[in-house]
User: Which sequence fits this backbone?
C-alpha cells in the first residue's frame, strides 16, 4: 500500500479524533467515506467488527478504534508529541481524553447523534428527534462546557501548557455537536475562546470543511469569528 487510508464517517467523533491527530502530525492520508449503518466489505476486511474509524497505514498495518489508533500513531510517528513529555503529563492528557471518550460520549454525544443522525437513516417509522431526550442531553452539555472552562481558566490548554490529545478529543466530539448547531457558546465564553483557538489551527481546517448534503452544518460551524 502506498497511501495511508482512513475509513471514517464525517460526523463521527472517534473518526474526527484520528483525522485531527494525523493532520497535527502532518501525515498524508486519504479519507474514505463510510456510513456506520452500511459497512462495506473493504472495511470488514480490516475490522470484522465493522466499527469506525479504521486506519490502514502505508505499511499495510490495520488499526481500528480511536484509542488504539491514537497510541499507534503516537508510537510510530512521535513528532510532534501529542500525549505528554513525562508520566504526569501523559496521565493528565489521557485522563481528559477518556472523559470525552466515555463520559461526554454517554452524557451528550450518543443521544444527540442517535436522535439527529441515526434516527434519520437507520430506524424505521418515526424519524423525528425526541425533543425530551435532546433537551436532557443538552442540559448535561453545560456541565462539560463548564469543565472545559474550568480547565482553561487555570491552564494554557486542557491538559496543561501544551496542546495535546486532551484538546484533540474534546474538540473532535464537541465539533460534531457544534456542526448540528447544539452548543450555546454565548453562555460559555471561556470554553468558546478555547474552541476559537482550536478552529484557527490549520490541522482542524479539514474538519471545518465537512458539509454533508443531507445534514448541512450550522450557520457558524466553519466561521472562525463565531
Assistant:
Amino acid at each position: 500500500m502506498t497511501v495511508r487510508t482512513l475509513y471514517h464517517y464525517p460526523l463521527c467523533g472517534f473518526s474526527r479524533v484520528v483525522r485531527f491527530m494525523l493532520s497535527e502530525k502532518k501525515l498524508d492520508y486519504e479519507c474514505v467515506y463510510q456510513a456506520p449503518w452500511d459497512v462495506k466489505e473493504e472495511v470488514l476486511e480490516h475490522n470484522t467488527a465493522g466499527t469506525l474509524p479504521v486506519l490502514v497505514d502505508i505499511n499495510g498495518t490495520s488499526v481500528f478504534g480511536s484509542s488504539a489508533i491514537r497510541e499507534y500513531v503516537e508510537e510510530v510517528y512521535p513528532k510532534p508529541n501529542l500525549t505528554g513529555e513525562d508520566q504526569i503529563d501523559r496521565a493528565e492528557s489521557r485522563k481528559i481524553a477518556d472523559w470525552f471518550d466515555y463520559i461526554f460520549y454517554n452524557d451528550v454525544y450518543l443521544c444527540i447523534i442517535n436522535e439527529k443522525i441515526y434516527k434519520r437513516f437507520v430506524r424505521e417509522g418515526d424519524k423525528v428527534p425526541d425533543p425530551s431526550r435532546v433537551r436532557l442531553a443538552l442540559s448535561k452539555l453545560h456541565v462539560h462546557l463548564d469543565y472545559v472552562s474550568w480547565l482553561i481558566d487555570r491552564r494554557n490548554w486542557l491538559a496543561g501548557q501544551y496542546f495535546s490529545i486532551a484538546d484533540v478529543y474534546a474538540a473532535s466530539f464537541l465539533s460534531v455537536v457544534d456542526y448540528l448547531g447544539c452548543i450555546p457558546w454565548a453562555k460559555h465564553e471561556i470554553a468558546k475562546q478555547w474552541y476559537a483557538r482550536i478552529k484557527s489551527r490549520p490541522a482542524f481546517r479539514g474538519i471545518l470543511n465537512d458539509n454533508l448534503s443531507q445534514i448541512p452544518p450550522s450557520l457558524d460551524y466553519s466561521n472562525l469569528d463565531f
